[in-house]
Structure of Biliverdin-producing heme oxygenase:
Amino acid sequence: MSSRPADRPSDVRSNLRERLRAETRPAHDALDRSLDLIERPLTRGEYTRLLARFYGFHQVTEPALESALDPSATSGRSKLPSLQHDLRACGITDPELGMLALIDRLPPLTSLPAALGALYVVEGSTLGGRLIGRHVKANPAMPDDSCRYFNVYGEQTGERWRATCDTLEAASDPHTDDEAIETANAIFARLHGWLMKDFRLGA
Ligand code: HEM
């Protein structure tokens, strides 16, 4: 007889979050290496282009996640106001904001598992964001108060991440978790290409 009763939560819960972490790690680390935001300080132009690319990413993913997921997973989590603020601080005008390119060729985010994979990538980005934010703030080339996006949840980052992990656990289903992981990897790959295009041009 098993010493771990089957009705204990640790036994019955699936481990989508742990699988996402392990199975997207190569894609995350490849993106981290390409962006090289910690070792190599950004120029102001590079930072503005990076924010513009994230703006094009979140403009597409946020409405898709709001349509596919329960409001409790997405409400109060928009990164667009912070990105707009930072882009304006970097000198982007409102007409220019409206003309920034939107990411294309993302996988469809209409099914629940696909949306969970996307939620993982989007919300997980706030963890590394805090580290990146500290480097951006310490960089004298950056305009004042131009770094809200990379610290979007401030002191609530850990609490909000735990809530996202709870959402992933609650919705985990061994029959569909593979789709969530495939989608997360596809998003990392597409975002990698999207963020790196014309990024390190200097100025
Ligand atoms: C130079 C760029 C990046 C660096 C240095 C970085 C760094 C980090 C660090 C240090 C963590 C762990 C934080 C912690 O456990 O407290 C983390 C987690 C994470 N980051 Fe990044 N990150 C970067 C870019 C990104 C981007 C662009 C995305 C996606 C849009 C992303 C998605 C994630 C995810 C999903 C996690 C959660 C991993 C888990 O399951 O625990 N990261 N990152």
In short: The chain is about 65% helix and 0% strand.
